[in-house]
Amino acid sequence: MFSFFKRKKPETEVAAPSAPDSAPVPGAPASEPAAPMFVPGALPTVSTTAPLAAPGTPDAGELFPETAERPTTEAERKRSWMARLKAGLSKTSSNLSLLFVGARIDEDLYEELESALLMSDAGMDATDHLLTALRRKVKEEKLLDAAAVKAALKQLMIEMLQPLQKPLELGRHEPLVMMIAGVNGAGKTTTIGKLAKHMQRFDQSVLLAAGDTFRAAAREQLMVWGQRNNVTVISQQSGDPAAVAFDAVQSGKAKGVDVVMVDTAGRLPTQLHLMEELKKIKRVIGKGMESAPHETLLVIDGNTGQNALAQVKAFDDALQLTGLIITKLDGTAKGGVLAAIARTRPVPVYFIGVGEKLDDLQPFDAEEFVDALLG
């Protein structure tokens, strides 16, 4: 279901969070030394149980329906995903698709199409590019009916979005260290929990770092996901998030974990002092492991439209992003923001999300996305 690429590696058992801090992780050498600490005396706590979540913190159990309720074959999962994607993008889709119903190929159609693209937050640059290319294609190929023009627009949109399509490659480093950023409310912590579950399907052992020491209940929320996924969570009651990240990387190296994911505090790109803290976390991760973080991802709320583009620019300037995860595309009329990203700051989109359940987060596929958008 997921288009990961990874080298074949010996299967590593995932460390269960039910053992005390000093207990060895299955598969690790009995004599391995404890991971070095970044801040003297600031020993991180490895979660052994999931504490009660604060009010308003979603229970991970609500986000994982029983296995029997999920599609059981690859074909069924594909159909189910496409149905959810189309439903999620229906507001954007209706604004675009209805223009071609019984339409004449004239200037009025192009003007209405321009308005619909701008309303979907495709942005002026992407809109001008698409309409210029569409006019040329209609003229050169002598397209005379609305269905043919719609098909031409679909092809142009696929070509525009294709550069954003890139699979997340696993197995390149041991461990693969991922730093996850995003503003508050984008769904960052929930996305980390979903990614951990998906990676386990690919025989990847995962360790999580609760580096969001700022938001209330963020640590507890990540621990709920850790317990549900049977994944160890490195955290501190309080302290420097960079220290938490450093200790997680050291622990992941010592225990032979495949993937280390570092959660970070949500912040607005206009909060310069907090953006500097993000840069510090990235530098400290690099001290814990050369070349890390190997993936620096930004989680974006798809409902924010053009503000999402501003976030991509700001976080990319600060952190040199390697990928995006766009969540909450369900119910929004702003699905065109991917076109704006493709034209302005083409950072790869690894995943898109259209709901709260595990299978509502899937790899981005340009053709699937445009099919859902234009039908």
Structural account:
The chain has 375 residues and is α/β, with parallel strands linked by helices. It has 2 domains: 76-164, SRP54, nucleotide-binding domain (Four Helix Bundle (Hemerythrin (Met), subunit A)), CATH 1.20.120.140; 169-364, Rossmann fold (3-Layer(aba) Sandwich), CATH 3.40.50.300. Helix content is 42%, strand content 13%. It has 12 helices and 11 strands. The strands form 2 sheets. A 9-stranded mixed beta sheet has the order 2-6-5-7-4-8-9-10-11, sandwiched between helices. Strands 1-3 form a two-stranded parallel sheet. Strand 9, helix 11 (337-344) and strand 10 (349-353) form a beta-alpha-beta unit. The radius of gyration is 22 Å and the shape is elongated. The protein starts with a strand and ends with a helix.
Question: Which features does this protein show?
Answer:
Four Helix Bundle (Hemerythrin (Met), subunit A); cytoplasm; 2 domains; two-stranded parallel ribbon; alpha/beta; Rossmann fold; SRP54_GTPase_dom; membrane; 12 helices; single chain; receptor; disordered N terminus; 375 residues
List the helices and strands and how they pair.
Layout: E1 5-6, E2 45-46, H1 74-88, H2 90-97, H3 107-119, H4 124-141, H5 146-161, E3 169-170, E4 176-181, H6 188-201, E5 206-211, H7 218-229, E6 232-235, H8 241-255, E7 259-264, H9 272-288, E8 295-301, H10 306-319, E9 323-327, H11 337-344, E10 349-353, E11 361-363, H12 366-374
Parallel strand pairs: 1-3, 4-7, 4-8, 5-6, 5-7, 8-9, 9-10
Antiparallel strand pairs: 2-6, 10-11
